[in-house]
Design brief:
single chain, alpha+beta, two-stranded antiparallel ribbon, 28% helix, 10% strand, globular
Length: 83
């Protein structure tokens, strides 16, 4: 099995308002075009560098659910942490 990581460069449209992440059902419907997530709700999510996100989540429990791709992502993260 080969596990890799690709650096994704995303340009965010700063003119769009930030999505309300406290909503019971945050916006997720949309499409990806040229590396940008275009949400049907017309808002955007803040993006963070990996190191900043890691510092923010340090000491937190994270639950990942989903398909085999989710499990591969989890495996890739464990490999980077422990090896």
């Amino acid at each position: 099995m080969a596990v890799g990581q690709m650096k994704v460069i995303i340009s965010v449209d700063a003119n769009k308002p930030v999505c309300d992440t406290t909503a019971a059902t945050p916006p997720v419907s949309g499409y990806v075009s040229q590396g940008n997530l275009n949400l049907d709700a017309g808002c955007r999510y803040n993006l963070y560098e990996a190191s900043h996100a890691t510092n923010c989540l340090q000491g937190s429990w994270i639950m990942m659910t989903g398909s085999s791709n989710t499990l591969l992502e989890l495996l890739a993260r464990w490999l980077r942490i422990f090896f």
